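Sanity check

After download, print the first record. It should look like this:
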Amino acid sequence: MVDEIDIKILELLKDNSRLSFADLGRKISLSPSAIRERLQKLEDNEVIRKYSITIDNRKLGYDIEAFILLKVFPGKLKSILGIITNYKEIKEVHRITGNQNLHLKIVVKNQIELQNLLDELMSFGDTNTFLILSCI
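Expected structure tokens:
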């Protein structure tokens, strides 16, 4: 399904998803139309599910990024799964194994917003918060 050329295309796109078909083709010695066909196949097979950007949240005034582990109270998991994506502060949600049920990545402007979010999440379960100091 995926060959070495597809892997090279994916690696290039991970670094810069805005590369044109021509730029990709030059880097791996294929024509732009061959690149287009391969990308279409990768999209159709859902190897590539979406293209995205990385945002510097601090430059937008959001000074706190954190991970929150949430151990949901018994019987509340289904209800929180239905609404968790409605919180604009929550950027990623992962259902996990172990003592906690959910792993959240959140972005807030300040400690007050973090406190307010935690207060809301505590109605669903116990939280454990880890501030992100930097990305490596």
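If your output differs, re-run the checksum step. Summary of this record's structure: The chain is about 40% helix and 20% strand.
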